[in-house]
Amino acid sequence: MLIFGYFHRSRLLYGLPAFIDQKSKIERVDNLMVFNIKRLLKLTNRTNSERLKIALGLPDLFTFLVQRLIKLKVKYEYVFEEKLTLYDKSIKNILDIENISSVRIGYNYLYNKLKLLGTKEGLNINQGFIQRLKHRIYSWYVNSDFILLKFMCHRGSIREDIYEKCILCKNADNGIKHVINECEKLKIERNILLGELNEINNTKYEELLKAIEYHYYSKRYSNTKAEAKKDNKGIKLIKEFLLTMYKKLGAENNKRDDE
Ligand SMILES: [Zn+2]
């Protein structure tokens, strides 16, 4: 994501805000951007784009462009001491508002967009998510981050549209909910992680999937050292669990291929 930030976003945001009213073209750039992120992160092109965008805290390109445009407008007006009205219409169209002189747009706007996207996927996204994402979850992208992202995008042998029956226990309907919450073959690991996450987050989730999603999306951001330590520990434990899960799935898959 650092590579994306340096090479893609910096260039995209440089001149593109001026063309924000060309909706279909911006959408094309947006799709291309998601395509490139998938390639950078070694995720297949079939990965659900909405889920990926939510997991990475990148709602859509318009969100960033309109933020940038308003910042430029404010800066221009401050430096040159004259009103810049050239882009007012475009901004009004995107934000769907009448009076733009009072617009204060920032962190909350990004958060609201993400929250809306999350609701469609049944996820409750907390305001601290974006901050935690920056500081705790993918600060430096390593292989275990790939596993975490893969899981957050519901990729791999847990997909019911590819494998009808669970690969691990072979007698239940497949799906993320079954593998994470119910499958007998992960019982020990699941109970350990569920207990630890409940303790870290001070929650009483009975289902592991809910506990993981809470830790990833809904946990509040805290600046205290003790909280940061707990937060990092939780993410580390989730990654370890997912690594074990995907390893087991991979081993079963290889067995099937050999038979
Ligand atoms: Zn199973």
Summarize the topology.
Elements: H1 2-15, H2 23-40, H3 49-56, H4 61-80, H5 88-95, H6 107-120, H7 129-137, H8 143-152, H9 176-182, H10 187-201, H11 208-218, H12 225-258
Residues 166, 168-169, 172, 178-179, 183, 185 line the site of zinc ion (ZN).
Description:
This protein has 259 residues and is mainly α. It folds into two domains: 124 residues, no CATH class; 126 residues, no CATH class. It is built from twelve helices and no strands. The mean pLDDT is 85. Zinc ion binds next to α9. The site of zinc ion has 8 residues, from α9.
Which labels suit this protein?
elongated, 65% helix, 12 helices, mainly alpha, 259 residues, binds zinc ion
How many helical elements? 12
**What count of domains describes the coordinates?**
2
Proportion of residues in extended strands: under 5%
Distinct small-molecule ligands in the complex = zinc ion
Order of helices and strands: HHHHHHHHHHHH
Give start-end ranges of low-pLDDT stretches.
none
Shape: elongated
Number of strands: 0
Helix and strand content put the structural class at mainly alpha
Average pLDDT, all residues: 85
Between the first and last Cα atoms, what is the distance in angstroms?
40 Å
Largest sheet: none
Helix content: 55-70%
The Rg value, from CA coordinates, equals 21 Å
